[in-house]
Amino acid sequence: MKQQFREDLDEVLRLIIESKSLALARYADGEASVLKNMTVGNKDGWLYKKDTNLVFRRDLRRSLLCADKNYLYGLSCSCCDKVNHEFLLNAVRAPLEQLTFSNLWVNANFPVFQERFLPVLCTSGKPVVICTGSKARVSDLEARIQISGFIPIPGNCVVYWEKHREYVRGLLDLYASQHSNAVFLFAVGPLSEILIHEMWQANPRNIYLDIGSTLDPILFRRRSRAYHTTGHEFAQRICTW
Questions:
Q1: Which candidate, 93, 85, 83, 39, places its Cα nearest to that of 61?
Q2: Within a domain: residue 116?
Q3: Fewer CB within a 10 Å sphere, N or C end of the chain?
Q4: Is residue 162 assigned to a domain?
Q5: Cα distances (angstroms) measured from residue 143 to each of 106, 122, 139, 219
Q6: pLDDT, tens digit, for every residue of 30-89?
């Protein structure tokens, strides 16, 4: 990664097609707040409670410590969130060439994502498995690309992980060990980073991507973020490292 907004996006899209081993985990203000043990949640329904969900915080912190080649970290950028940019830079162990933007898919890059991401998945020829909220309309996504599997996460992802951690870890191990050269898409808030780390440890010979809210207009039939709206300030922002 070169920490250049459009260039890094182009490189990740290339790697989805050409690589057999890749992870992209993204950490922004929500993940940083969890790591700082601050009560935080968002409109998608997840909530982390200070001094209560410490198992979740521990596992999220551990997910930041991988320095394996091909494991990429998207971090808050200095133009959108300088404080957490510095905080996350100090927390991660991976070298600079494995760091990019947490906003890689969004803001001014979102039109490119919309145009190229699903076609890139099709071109890759790799099986695609999605892990997202249990209420997602996966059939709407299947109308655009072939989906080989669906890992649903119900309710508050923070609480669900702490209550069902061992079962979910076993399920992830099953999926990871049964697939090779597949693409796994994650859209379950900060839990995505934990799940990507778990599956990478089980089998790094797959592609694991945190896609966040990018497919919300398809999966949940809503524009859940400002960047989904053409012409909005965020939809035009070219992030800088």
A1: 93
A2: yes
A3: C
A4: yes
A5: 23, 12, 6, 11
A6: 999 999 999 999 878 899 999 999 999 999 999 999 999 999 999 999 999 999 999 999
Q: 205: pLDDT confidence band, cut at 50, 70 and 90?
A: very high
Task: Output the six-digit token pair for 52.
Answer: 């209560």
In a domain, 241, yes or no: no
Residue from 241, 240, 236 nearest 107 by CA: 236
The answer for residues whose C-beta is within 8 angstroms of residue 100's C-beta and 6 or more apart is: 1, 3, 8, 12, 24, 72, 73, 74, 75
Nearest one of 44, 17, 20 to 30, comparing CA atoms: 44
In this prediction, residue 44 carries a pLDDT of: 80
CA neighbours within 13 Å on the CB side: how many for 118? 16
Mean pLDDT of the chain: 96
Mean local confidence (pLDDT), 158-167: 98
Tell me the two tokens of residue 218: 């398809």
How many domains does the chain contain in total?
A: 1
Domain that holds residue 32: 5-236
- Residues 6 or more apart whose CB falls under 8 angstroms from that of 111 comprise 230, 235
Amino acid at 149: G
Looking at the DSSP bridge assignments, the partners of residue 151 are: 131
Burial status of residue 162 (CB atoms within 10 A of its CB: 0-12, 13-18, 19 or more): middle
